[in-house]
Design goal:
With 477 residues, the protein is an alpha+beta fold. The chain folds into 2 domains: 112 residues, Immunoglobulins (Immunoglobulin-like); 312 residues, Na+/H+ antiporter like fold, CATH 1.20.1530. The C terminus is likely disordered. Helix 4 runs antiparallel to helix 5. Strands 2, 4, 6, 8, 9 and 10 form a 6-stranded mixed β-sheet that branches. It has a 4-stranded antiparallel β-sheet with strand order 1-3-7-5, with no helix packed on it. Strands 11-12 form a two-stranded antiparallel sheet. It contains 19 helices and 12 strands. It is found in: Membrane.
Length: 477
Amino acid sequence: MVRVRMCPLWPIHYVFMYLAVLGPIWLLSFEMIGAAAQVASKGSNWNVTYQPAKPDPILVDKDETIDVRLVNVAGIQLGPNDKLYVEYIVEDPNIAEVSTPVTEIPAESVVDTSFNITGNFLGYTKICPSINYFSAKDNRNTTEILTEEKDCLTIAVIRESTAIDKAFTYSVAGLVAIIYVNMGAALDMSTVRDTLKRPIGPTIGFLSQFMIMPLLSYAICKALIPRPDLQLGLFITGCSPGGGASNIWTLTLGGNLDLSITMTTISSIAAFAMMPLWILTLGKTIFDEADLTVPYSKIGTFAVTLVVPLIIGIIIRRFSTKFANILVKILKPFAVFLIIFIVVFAIYTNLYLFQLFTWQILIAGFLLPVLGYILGGGFALALKQSWRDTVAIAIETGVQNTGLAIFALRFSMPQPEADLTTALPVAVAIMTPLLPALLIVYQMIRGEKLGDEEERKDPLCQSTENESGIKTYGSMK
């Protein structure tokens, strides 16, 4: 029989075995915890305050002096050869830069210093201090970067407003107002009533314009544009009514012009309510991310400013037949002029836009109208609309009133957001004609032309006289 000799320390020897295995792990853990605690304590050695705490926006290419007070709450003691430095780290040097980023400071309980900052480009950036301590005794540097929100300063950089900037803003507002006056003067309710007898087309157009486009613009900006302030530009463009040359493209491509005119009229009037509705609901999420306050009063005022010129146009149509006819005749060429003016003048006035035209913005500006054409047309085909109605609905959905979007942004947003967000509707305005223009070239290559019957439907080629003796041609934007 084999006899097994038990360990004299049995069963206590299991405790020693566990200690032998786990002891080094425990010691390593304690060391890591101590190191983590030391790292976590960083940022508590200094308190930072700025004067002014919220500086006014800095102009591009201009300098601003910021006073800084550093409070040494840890009571760091320096030797005779030790050095203490503060470095100001700019989050985005493309927006602003510090002229002398590194400054030697005395080892006192309270240190008053300052730095000069220069604005480079529009936008926001943060400046966070970094305290560098050089110990001559140990011959080593210890760096403490203060990255907490309370320790950093947010800087806004804006452009200096010039006379040409004001001229652009006021001219866009004036041209949009004139368009709405002309629309009121050209509003032919008999054409609208005839089209509404078959309401499926206008209903599809309304849903495409104010359901598909706002949601589509929101999805595109979230997928492609990382900055919330720039997202606003695309979203508000997507919430705008159909506009620009929608009636002209519809006529040229052989669509149902009467339906296009009716949808233009309906969307322009509905925009008074639908634009503020989308901006104050889904758009509020973007405002919150951009740390901006929703300008409720300005949005309300903006909606009212659109109603007034439309009512003026209706009054002109009611009481001055001759003047109303003059306004109607110039409506189509004026709409084309408005598109060209906005794109050319916006680029000339705001050359900085090209620096904002990243590949994401260009793709977003291309996708919004093109997907609008596709989704609007697909929606119409799914509901078995005729080809002419489908063309009208697709064009009306994809062509946005970018002038109205620019006016809304300029009127409602503070600086620098008002300048930054303009890049998106301008990008959309540039990209919108590409697909219709390609289709027109395709028609020309194939030798296709619009028939005389379609040309006779052009409200600016044919006029009808209503019961009041007023010639009406339809409405265009």
